[in-house]
Amino acid sequence: MPLAGYFCARIWVPQVSILRPGIFRSLKPLLALCALLLLLPAMPLPAQTKTLRIAAAADLQPVLPSLIHNFEKSSGAKVEVSYASSATLATQILNGAPYDIFFAANLAFPQKIVAANLAEESAPITYARGSLVLWTRHGLFHHGLTMQSLTSPIVHRIAVANPVHAPYGAAAMAAIQSLGLKAALQPKLVFAENIAQAAQFGQSGNADCALISKTLAITKTMQQAGRFVAVPVGAYPPILQGAVVMRNAPGKQAALDFLKYLQSPAGRNLLATSGLMPPTQ
Amino acid sequence: MDTVALLLTLRLALVTTVILLLIAVPLAYWLAFSGSRARVFVQAVCALPIVLPPTVLGFYLLVALGPRTAFGRGLTHLLGHPLAFSFAGLVVGSVIYSLPFAVQPLTTGFAAVDRGMLDAATTLGSGRWDRMRRVVLPLSRGSLLTASVLSFAHTVGEFGVVLMIGGNLPGATRTLSIALYDQVQDFQYAQANRTALFLLAVCLVALMLLYGLRPESRPRSGDLV
To answer: Reduced to 3 states, what is the DSSP secondary structure of residue A130?
Structure first.
């Protein structure tokens, strides 16, 4: 955008006659405001309790808020979350992003963090097992809905997450392949950056169907716009979701506490109601 | 490098530039010579894409022009497919996104044409269209070049809108900037580096051409630079 700055400075500004005599007098309050804004970040923030910074795979977007709410109440810590595809977050962390804990949607991406010697653990901790579902908007299929329904000519666009960045996208492609639907469905596939965008493509009506995580499919928004069925579990490799705590993170203790809470019966219950099963079951 | 993505990017930039010139020349002419009160409003609307995040545009293209609205359904019916996930959708997005980069240099160029020459042309019996064709446009060659090169380069550099409405389809919506993003996500840094260097070189050469080919050797007030 530096070019845009040039435009503003070189083309438009002279046209509003910034050099008119006396204009600086009327600009004084504005300049004062700018000076104030510049000073703001330099002021110390109000005494902060410990902050826990979470990097979470996009399938956790509907899952984490209630867990975080409970955790904040019981621990007094403040939690900040960034959602993206597992690969995006792994890339960011490997390049120095300041997160305390990373919740991925598979084991391979947190394994990269372990391999780079940045993790507290010697292997990712499997915190949940995800399910892949087939979602379709209301009114498209009146009878049964199965993976084979996708070959129907009334389905024009099927949204999946990019299999390279997003573990649910990889699972979706594996299911399509193992069910022998690849040739028929390939021309209909559109690729979203992460699983939440795949859901959004469906919800906004731009795609007729979407292969997404159960966590997203059971949200109110997605239920209002359509319905879903589970993709047969044998059709794709289990989606084991792993987490790692960053070894040198300032919020390491809070991260370990949060992970412990997630694995407690209360945490497991909340995960289950959000569409994530315990890893061994 | 991903040659399919490269060719697609060049095609998108070329189509966008041609459409933009067709829209921007009359628009800039009106902005430069009209005394209408609506001018300030239109000028501001044309400049919006410079300041608005591309996500605003992506959001409206995806949702407001998608099958959930009557307008979007009409458009889908007309095209045979939704605007999203298609080359046509990217063209619409790029034309809006790069509009100021065509309109602003042209407006400045047109406004800089000596009014005396226009008056002289009028007294010689030249009409509005004739003045435009034989006086204004030839005297604004530099601005036309600036508008074309910037529209082209800015479209090559588009990312946010494409990420939101593209669907990453090879040959249709996977542009070089998206291919580069995928390469970075996939930890293919060597490939990513090749794509990034290429983009860097293309944009640098385009801008150098722009400055080198300008008829005036020295920067002028009201010029891009």
So the answer is: strand
